[in-house]
Amino acid sequence: MDSSYIMPFVSSIQNVFSTMLQLQVQVQKPTIKNADTLAYDVSGIIGMSGDVEGSVALSFPTATAERVVTLFTGMELTAGHEDFADAIGELVNMISGSAKAQLVDKEVSISCPTVVIGDQHQVHGRKDVLTISIPCESDCGNFTVEVSTRRVASGATAGQAGASATV
Amino acid sequence: MKILLVDDSKTMRNIQKGILSQLGYTDLEEACDGLDALSKVGAFNPELLLVDWNMPNMDGLSFVKEYRSKGGKSPVIMVTTEAEKSRVVEAIKAGVNNYVVKPFTPDLLSQRIKETLERVAA
User: N or C: which terminus of chain A has fewer CB atoms within 10 Å of its end residue's CB?
Assistant: First the structure.
């Protein structure tokens, strides 16, 4: 995968967390996701379509997600709270939106977010698209952003963007 | 000042409410998408609208076009992740008065609100 499709996500992760949560995030070296990739408990997933298609998943262990949501909303919300998923969805929405704006000369649309809450689930992107895992460290704990996107050839018909989760 | 917040994220509406309250604006109404907003503008008659772009049922751009076509004249600030220049131009053509890209700081949103209201008053 072209690194120019990953770097916008690296900068948008840091920008979103520092601006909205005043939380500094150290982004580690992105790697190709393989079958041994860790499972997580909370994931916000968003689809991308247009000149670039695929999905973006923001995944946390429960305790990290709860700390992050508390910082974001200013309220202590556990994973069972009705507003918890909304906050996770808005975070992945901002990360994806901010990243797509940095994809020069590309017309890209993002979907409304989907949030999965369930112990030890994995998020699977399209099988024909490489998934890049971006490990992130913060004072709230570690989390991951998985980017599974590909450029759509000019004139090609865009396929269904998206991802599936298994618990 | 009556302000309508249109965003499908309750989290984002709450963040905006907090900022607006600090600015002294407390007469607020909320809508979760464009259709919900259209159903509320008549009765609430907002003097300022903060509108997200990507929402289910009716997106923010469609809402603004519909609102303007029905004679709605209050200033609209688009608060969205859509940051591409082409999108900003599209929004302005549809009748948006000002633009805030998410993520934003409280200071930026405050500044955009103040300058929008000053322009309308001028």
Answer: C
